[in-house]
Design a protein that fits this description.
The chain is α+β, with helices and mostly antiparallel strands. It is built from 5 helices and 10 strands, in the order αβαβββαβαβββαββ. It has one domain (about 5-160): YbaK protein, CATH 3.90.960.10.
Length: about 160
């Protein structure tokens, strides 16, 4: 079966279509979880690859969307999202439960739960970004404006720093 026919990828494609966006999904030979290799495969800069990261603030799962050439400052997430509690990276089973996607293939859309979302302002450096599309080897192009609209995310200057 082609990866673009995978159930999770089809769910992302449907969400893109439902929102009126193009569903130009790209199947890669490498995992998008390796942002540098994904960037080379696509022909873009590493920073244009979106890292979709799930954390828990207290018991609340949250989504951080960070440029591929930056590191998430997880301690800044509670303030950026107006939440309180200890922050920790979600375990693989918690990621799957909150998003419906496996680690490495977490799309910022079509999530199992509606998650508070913080968007790294560093993504604004790029006209076109690439996000995981439900499978570690599938991505789709998106802009910051589209990302903000589809996720109801908050663009933050404080959630990431150069890697």
């Amino acid at each position: 079966m082609r990866l673009l026919e995978d159930e999770s990828v089809v769910k992302v494609r449907q969400a893109l279509n439902d929102s009126g966006l193009s569903d130009q999904l790209i199947e890669l030979e490498v995992s998008a979880a390796d942002t540098e290799k994904a960037a080379v495969a696509i022909g873009t800069e590493t920073g244009a690859i979106i890292k979709s990261m799930i954390f828990l603030i207290g018991e609340q799962p949250v989504l951080a969307l960070v440029a591929g050439d930056r590191r998430c400052k997880e301690d800044a997430l509670p303030r950026a999202l107006n939440l309180t509690g200890e922050v920790r990276k979600a375990a693989a089973d918690e990621v799957l439960a909150a998003t419906g996607f496996v680690v490495g293939g977490v799309a910022p859309i079509a999530l199992a739960l509606q998650l508070p979302t913080a968007i790294d302002v560093g993504l604004k450096r790029f006209k076109t970004l690439y996000a995981a599309a439900g499978h570690p080897r599938c991505v789709f192009p998106i802009t910051v404006a589209e990302l903000k609209k589809l996720t109801a995310g908050i663009v933050s200057y404080n959630i990431a720093e150069p890697a």
